[in-house]
Specification:
mainly alpha; globular; single chain; two-stranded antiparallel ribbon
Length: about 150
Amino acid sequence: MPAPDPNAERDKAARQAVHAVYRELAERPAERSCTLQTECCRFKLTGEMPYLTRGEAMVIAHALRAAGRKALPPQVDGACPLLDPRTARCIVYKDRPFGCRTHFCDAAGGPYARREVLDLIRQLEVIDTAVGGDGPRKLIGALNEVIP
């Protein structure tokens, strides 16, 4: 029997704290209407890639494991590896990172002004530090750090 993970409770608390930030963002009045065109998920097309804190990457890794996935899916045509190539939908949509929730996509209403979400960004940074992160990383790099 494997030894219990000494960081399991810390990691669970961090994931809960990240979800609390996401809930707070969802409660803010902002005109957002994603039309699910997924252009923002096609990094090669946009030249953009969201940055994740370690806590956010841990949330996604947990969601992938819960869905029975043991590894990060490969990128197809420069798209986000979390974009299912068969359905063109995010495989972890309810757990998608902050950058995907506040993204630059014109189809969803354009980016949030940084001043509107700076307090939430700072909360994510505090969580990041608590779990041994040292700042946001590009999505793929951040996920590769937490997915064995």
